[in-house]
Amino acid sequence: MATHSMTTEVWISTRGKIPEITRTAIQEALEADNPKDTPSFGSEDLEVIQRAGTEAGLLGIYNFPGAVYATDGSNDKGVIGAGYYRLDENRGGCCQLGRGEEGNSSNRPELGAACLALEDAKSKQDGKPIIFLSDSACFLSSSQKWIGEGKSPSVWGNPDADIIRDIVQLLRERIEQGLLTIFIKIKAHRGDPLNELADRWADEGRQSDNIRWSLPTNRPIFSWTDNGITPHSTMDLTVKKRIDLQVSRQQFKIHTGSTANFLTKEDNSRELLGIFHKDRSVWIRARWTVLQCLSHQFPCALQLKKWGMLNDVKGRLCEKYYQEKRIREPPDPVESVGHIQCYCPVLQLPRIAIHHGIWRELMFSIRKSSTELNDASEHRWHFPSALSPEAHAE
User: Fold this and answer.
1) Category of 165 on φ-ψ map: left (φ > 0), alpha (ψ -120 to 50) or beta
2) Where along the chain do its domains lie?
3) pTM for the full predicted model
4) Which terminus of the chain is more exposed, N or C, with fewer CB under 10 A?
5) 148 pLDDT band (50/70/90 cuts)?
6) Which position has the higher pLDDT, 319 or 202?
7) Tell me, which fold does domain 46-212 have in CATH?
8) Cα distance between residue 386 and residue 394, in whole Å
9) Three-state SS sequence of 81-131
10) 84 vs 35 pLDDT, higher one
């Protein structure tokens, strides 16, 4: 197997001979700067069989009596390209999309590619039904709202309204002419020749001098620097997150305390807390509790007294427990988060159960990954089990 990023050696039999033309072709292919190969539409039996086994082939696309367009988009460092490939005429087209300085999304180049293909079909005026193959689920979802009766969609507020407006107009013209138009979602980068050829035309579009849909929207453009890269974008969720981050960093400068120290100190596994908070399989009340503890908002007696909602900081469960045990001077009657998590005698068994759960997870992971054996061919790791709360009391 040959790659572009490592030295490749080709070994052949001493009695074998490779024509100079073949050797030169192999060498040029290996030394090419383009990491993508150009798919070939050959007529050999094996090539026909291979195409019939692809997703498009299984759908019978290659036997469709009308025109088949495969569309794709390309986005690299803010330069957007769109391209299409037409099967029956074995040709394609592309362009570069403007407004890259306003930010971009994966949906915009896909919309541009579909619009280019619709314009090409209109210029032919052959009255053929059309199938569009796209590997973008976002493009098909954004187009779904314009299908069916009783709907009143609007392009107001849509960042790609300039392209959607043209697509809707072209589709309406085809409907008025009674022409069939079908959009089909196919999987990307699975070796489908149609999708791969559309991808090559989209890459070519990023270098094209034909720039389309470049009229600015006059919306404010925000920029920031992250790891030496300065992206640009209009107001969206990414910009809002960056603004929230900058506001938080400014607030840290005027705040002190455990929470501020934890959030500003390096190597505190904050990314793990972020992953835990985003995990939708975790009970939502558990995620809320973690955030309350980190931000000193957990409603324990000590915090409720600070908020003026209680007059006493003693825990009711602890007070009842000490009364039953006839302990006149309890060592730590203040109900704080630390008291609940580490000391409260009433919650000893739940804490033990949680600790044992963590212990079992750790032991399971170690045992699963442990393959070391001793001289007696036994596992070198010993895994004790928790037999009773008394054996593992705090």
Assistant:
1) alpha
2) 46-212, 301-343, 350-392
3) 0.60
4) N
5) low
6) 202
7) Nucleotidyltransferase; domain 5 (3.30.420)
8) 13
9) EEEEEECCCCEEEEEEECCHHHCCCCHHHHHHHHHHHHHHHHHHCCCCCEE
10) 84
Helix axes 107-124, 193-205, angle to 10 degrees: 100
The residues facing 108 across adjacent strands are: none
Q: What's residue 380's pLDDT? A: 66
Phi then psi for residue 26, to 5 deg, are -65, -45
Among the ranges 97-101, 197-201, 269-273, which has the highest mean pLDDT value?
197-201
| pLDDT for the residue 241 | 87
